[in-house]
Amino acid sequence: MDLHSRVPSGPIEKLWDQARFEMKLINPANKRKHTIIVVGSGLAGASAAATLGELGYNVKCFCFQDSPRRAHSIAAQGGINAAKNYHGDGDSVFRLFYDTVKGGDFRSREANVYRLAQISVNIIDQCVAQGVPFAREYGGMLANRSFGGAQVSRTFYARGQTGQQLLLGAYQALERQVDTGRVRMFPRTEMLDLVVIDGQARGIVTRNLITGQIESHAADAVVLGTGGYGNVYYLSTNARGSNCTAIWRAYKRGAAFGNPCYTQIHPTCIPVSGHYQSKLTLMSESLRNDGRIWVPLTAGDKRPPNQIPENERDYYLERRYPSFGNLVPRDVASRNAKAVCDQGRGVGETGLGVYLDFSDAMKQLGVEVIRERYGNLFEMYERITDENPYEVPMRIYPAMHYTMGGLWVDYYLMSTVQGLFVIGEANFSDHGANRLGASALMQGLSDGYFILPYTVGDYIAKANLEKIDAAHPEFTRAEAEVSELTKRLLSVKGTQTVDAFHRQLGKIMWDDCGMTRSAQVLKSAIGQIRDLREHYWKDVKVAGSADDLNQSLEKAGRVADFFELAELICVDALHRNESCGAHFREEYQTREGEAQRNDDEFSYAAAWEYRGLDRAPALHKEHLAFEYVHPSARSYK
Ligand SMILES: Cc1cc2nc3c(=O)[nH]c(=O)nc-3n(C[C@H](O)[C@H](O)[C@H](O)COP(=O)(O)OP(=O)(O)OC[C@H]3O[C@@H](n4cnc5c(N)ncnc54)[C@H](O)[C@@H]3O)c2cc1C
Question: Can you give the pTM of this predicted structure?
Answer without folding.
Answer: 0.96
